[in-house]
Amino acid sequence: MIQLYGHELSGNSYKAKLMLDLLKIDYQWNSVDVMAGAHKRSEFLAMNSFGQIPVLVDGDRVLADAQAILVYLARQYGGESWLPLEAEPMSRLVRWLSTAAGEVRQGPEFARLYHLFKLTSIDIGRAIEKSAFILDRLNAHLSDREWLELGHPTIADVAVFPYVALARDGKIDLDSYPHVLAWIDRVKQLPGYIPMPGL
To answer: Is residue 196, in this structure, part of any structural domain at all?
Structure first.
């Protein structure tokens, strides 16, 4: 059985959990106590030398990084609906994976870390600016479509969803972004959708 290592409050861990549930794949959840530094201990570092969650173990395959795990699950178990093989549509999805690891991380995710986890080393002013930047563009992008790309749910939606949907944990107001809010509701209606704390 697939093993997934992560933390209940981690949006990146949640991405992997959500994808597994959307694909109806059985897995075992293994909680990693990141607050106590379990992700920096030798047994965890043997799986991911970066000391980061999530980690997915599928047989003899050990995969780290939320975006990489989404790609693996989509290609291994999900088929072309979740991640097409053709160059142009694939590139459109990869752009959103980069956005999730870039603008969404530097904006809503950092604001959430600052307020929810008291990570005061974060420049909260910069995180607020980044949040406004990406939410403005996301709202405009979703103004004439239901999903980020290709007209149906893909790993792009799963990658971007958690920290945008959790933005209020970082005191980022979503009321000015009606198309984003409608998209969040659509994701929550997907068969197999599971919530996490804050959602």
So the answer is: no
Residues 64 and 112 in one domain: no
Range of the domain at 92: 87-188
Tokens encoding 124? 């909260």
Measure the CA–CA gap between 121 and 124, rounded to whole angstroms. Answer: 9
Q: Which amino acid is at 150?
A: L
Q: What is the mean pLDDT of residues 11-25?
A: 98
Mean pLDDT score of the chain: 97
Exposure b/e, 35-72, CB count within 10 A at least 16 = b: eeebbeeeebeebbeeebbbbbbbeeeebbbbbebbbb
We report the CATH number of the domain holding residue 71 as: 3.40.30.10
Q: What 3-state DSSP class applies to 30?
A: strand
pLDDT of residue 119: 92
Spatial strand order in the sheet of 2-6: 27-31, 2-6, 55-58, 61-64
Task: Please identify, among 54, 78, 102, the residue that sits at the C-terminal boundary of a domain.
Answer: 78
Q: What angle do CA 51, 123, 44 make, to 5 degrees?
A: 5
Is residue 35 scored above 90 in pLDDT?
A: no
At residue 189, the pLDDT reads 98
- Count of all residues that appear for the chain in the document: 199
Among left, alpha and beta (phi > 0; psi -120 to 50; other), residue 24 is left
For the chain, what is the domain count?
A: 2
User: 69 lies in a domain?
Assistant: yes
